Amino acid sequence: MNLIWVMPAKGVDVPHGHDIWVTGASLRLGDDPPVDVLGGVDLHAAGGEVTAIVGPSGCGKSTLLDAIAGLVPLEHGTVRTGGDVALMPQRDALMPWLTLHENVAMGARLGGTGTDAADDAAADALERLGLTGFARHYPHALSGGMRQRGALARTLLSRRSTWLLDEPFGALDALTRSDMHGVLRHLHAEARPTILLVTHDIGEAVALAGRVLVAGPRPMRIVDAIPVDASEPQATASAVMDALRRAGAVA
Amino acid sequence: MRPARVALAVALPLLVLVAWQLVSWIASPREWMLPSPAAVGQAAWGARDRLWFHAQWTVLIAVIGLLLAVALGSAIAYLIARSRIARLALYPWVVVSQVIPLVALAPLLVLWFPPFVAIVALAVLMSIFPVVVAGVDGLRGTDPDLVRAARGLGADEGWAWRHVRVPAALPRLFTGIRLAAVFVVSGAVVGELVASDRGLGALTRLSAGQFETPVTFAGVVLLALIGLALFGAVALAERAALPWTRRATRRGS
Hints:
By secondary structure, chain A is α/β, with parallel strands linked by helices. Chain A contains seven helices and nine strands.
């Protein structure tokens, strides 16, 4: 698949991303019995950079993102972002009753762009992602990779300066996933949002992020922060793996 | 529709018709008891003006009743799904309205309202329940990831309700509407039986009273056809309104 990067998106100017600061975030969910999901999470993600969170399944990573996005109130602790946060859930979650174009334009409209400008921006984004031919298709007729590209375009057009990506490529096959890594890198290089990426794939974390935060099992805390050495990805991956083992996340 | 499918669909009714005609030939029941298909056909043709006149009336009531049931039912469903107070206040009454036998309610309605209103009210009462239930089900059962995606892009609860939950609920709502289309005809007939001298329900009552059984049969067959036609109309409306539910057989690369 060829990506044609001609020029920056029309009508989309995204401010450079803010830092994300989380201090002592605690959250308990459920009634019977209530479960401590977040047990005092402290984290810092640098503005304009990609930071990954790696941890075992079910440890609360999605809940943490919900809390940072302001969808779920914390019991204790604080979250500081630029205020300008977009959350992308695990599955692409494109609205099934809208065409690909309409879905992407929805992102722009929720970001405050007017209807006509939103349509133009959507058409432009789809072209840059090689999806123009599918603009009028409904999501069920598209492959997983196409839908995920659509979801990313939608997030880009929302003009938020901070993106929280919840295992965005988990449902894709390995080839498509590598493709998507390239897409994300290009989008990030252009718009420089702050990206907090949750993933269970250490390789992906090391490939995309400048820093990998290691999360422990429930109640979740960030137990380690490992800077990524781009020239030694294997070494970084091993360091992450070791940290996960120490945290009791992996046998 | 492919020929094989059409053939299968028509096979059973055809079989029934043939068996019925055979029974008539062999057992020769009294015509006022069990007329043969041929006799029904003849009577229908002979009475076609009368049948047409009454059929129009029933169709009118059924269509108005269905539209009202859909509009009111959807509104009630939205209120119940959105507000806990509305749910506690309304839902029990919706259920009660279904538990009371409508045949018993009919004479009361006729006492209080002009006949046309009473009959339409009966048609609506008979068909509103599936719309409400399906609507509530659809609105409550929205895929949480869709809501999360919209809220994650900055939408507030109100936006999410209008632009995510409502469209997501439509497929399930249409299931309710399809059921309503069938029940509304029964409601119209119950009303006509009790309160009217117009409509196919009234015709069956009058002709049965006169032992004009072939005409009664013809009336019943017409009612079935009206029900089928309404059902088909709803199915067509559904395909037009929900283009995305027609699944593709092949996906993109």
